[in-house]
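re: the backbone from monday

yeah here it is again, tokenized this time
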């Protein structure tokens, strides 16, 4: 089956809505994907669901599309944040892409005591990766990406209604935690540490907070990007929208 082009546009979508294309979008659709006038594609904007549209104008410097029918309603993922310490570039890109595919509402890069990649973090790149992953995986919602936040500050100002799934490498070897129905329907955040793990002070701070659920991710020390996927899978399969 020829894969249908799916494109994120920052533009309202609706029946008979026309969408003007930027030069970059025109290059992608007509230069790279070789679409021509009359052909159809799918559009998302993170708000109006997915719409089938057709090419009405195709040029090197721009073009125009016309929306016809909504093919998917907006599906907003559960109120789940992924808080992750920045890693080496390609590993952060992996975490971002998998988080979108597995389903998060918000991505928050956090500076922890042992984080050592934060200074090269490019939020614009992460936003572009989020859009690309949303286009690719059939999502109709595009997660929000926050600027880098200090973990200590996040915890100091924490909303105590939001549960924290704290992947703590100090629990390695203990059985992976069953989340059960506790916190079903509540807002959650998953916290994954950097390659160097969490500091004793961070662990104490987290353990002292009521909404914190310290979890083991099994008997081996996982790379941070593996831990992010494992924790998201655990949460989504027990409390999320995989039910
Ligand atoms: N430097 C740490 C050590 O040797 O103990 C390992 C940190 S690990 C590479 C990065 C993050 O992944 C950890 O901070 C934690 O959030 C998560 N993680 C990795 N393995 C885990 C496990 N078995 N249980 C819980 N969390 C784990």
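seq for it, each position gets an aa:
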């Amino acid at each position: 089956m020829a894969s249908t082009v799916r494109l994120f546009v920052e533009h309202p979508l609706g029946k008979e809505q026309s969408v003007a294309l930027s030069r970059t979008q025109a290059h992608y659709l007509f230069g790279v994907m070789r679409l021509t006038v009359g052909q159809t594609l799918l559009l998302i904007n993170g708000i109006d669901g997915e719409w089938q549209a057709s090419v009405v104008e195709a040029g090197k410097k721009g073009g125009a599309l016309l929306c016809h029918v909504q093919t998917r309603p907006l599906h907003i993922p559960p109120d789940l944040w992924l808080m992750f310490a920045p890693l080496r570039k390609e590993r952060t890109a992996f975490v971002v892409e998998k988080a979108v595919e597995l389903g998060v509402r918000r991505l928050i890069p956090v500076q922890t005591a042992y984080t050592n990649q934060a200074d090269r973090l490019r939020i614009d790149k992460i936003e572009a990766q989020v859009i690309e992953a949303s286009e690719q995986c059939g999502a109709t919602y595009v997660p929000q990406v926050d600027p880098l936040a200090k973990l200590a500050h996040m915890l100091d100002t924490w909303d105590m209604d939001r549960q924290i799934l704290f992947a703590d490498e100090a629990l390695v070897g203990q059985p992976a935690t069953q989340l059960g129905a506790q916190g079903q329907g509540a807002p959650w955040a998953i916290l994954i540490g950097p390659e160097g793990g969490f500091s004793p002070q961070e662990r104490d701070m987290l353990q002292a907070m009521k909404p914190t659920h310290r979890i083991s991710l099994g008997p081996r020390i996982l790379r941070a990007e593996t831990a992010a996927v494992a924790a998201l899978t655990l949460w989504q399969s027990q409390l999320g929208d995989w039910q």
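The chain is about 30% helix and 25% strand. Residues 167-169, 171-172, 192-193, 195-198, 216-218, 221-224, 227 surround S-adenosylmethionine (CB under 6 Å).
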